[in-house]
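Thread: Newbie trying to understand structure tokens

Hi all, I'm a second-year student working on a class project, and my supervisor (Dr. K.) asked me to get a predicted structure for one chain before our next meeting. I've only ever worked with sequences, so writing a 3D structure as a token string is new to me. If someone could post the tokens and maybe explain what I'm looking at, I'd be very grateful. Here's the chain:
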Amino acid sequence: MGVVRALETEEHINEERGNAEQGAGASGRARRQERGEETRRKIMEAAEAEFARGSYHSVSLRDIAKTADVRLASIAYHFGTKEELWKAVFLRRAIEMNRERVALLTETARKAKGSVVPLRGVLRAMLQPGIRWLFDPGGRGLFIQVLIRSPLDQTSPMFDMFYRDARHIQRFIPYFKKALPELTEEDINWRMHFCIGAMHYTITDIKRLEYVSNGVCNTEDMEEMVDRVVTFCEAAFRAPPYEKQPPRPCT
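---
Reply by user tm_fold:
Sure, no problem. This is what the structure looks like when written as tokens:
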């Protein structure tokens, strides 16, 4: 019996040791995964800051590695190339902004209780996040600076991704159709394009307004800025449907 108990005890000890080693292995993997995620976050934040300061081609992976305080090999391991890193930076913020738009649109639709969602609410959901991010002193504000550069550098993946990122805007079209059934889909797309242009110009060149207006316009109040842009765009959407004019005779 003593031998049996001894064998049972040794078997129990080995089992416990195996469980402990397995637990330690799982814990180690969790810690490594956590460190890896932290390194990815640091790299993306550093890349965002660098792309906000310089063009895509002027920013090097060494610049990003230095800002992130990581080895160059870490960027290659987590992202591969500069283009893939840029895409990760863009998609992270684009997804975040689009979620904010969807949340606002969903809440506005909920308040409508099955009725047609008010035009002003649809416009606010589409335009407010971009303007709000302009006032964010952190990464979101930096992303706005990245967006400023995106349409300017036509040889970089910034340009391509900026113009292909359209699905989040297309989801607003059915709401505009219901709010303004007298407009054609072509009219709606044109007016949506003009309104997004107004928002983009506002967030990318708001300082110009200070000079043009000699300081008369208040550009420090986010709520006022959102309200003014939405009011402007609402008036544009409510204009009569477009009618093509006959060619004017040459004079």
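A couple of things are worth pointing out once you decode it. The domain at 1-80 is CATH 1.10.10.60 (Arc Repressor Mutant, subunit A). The two ends are 118 Å apart (CA to CA). Feel free to ask follow-ups in this thread.
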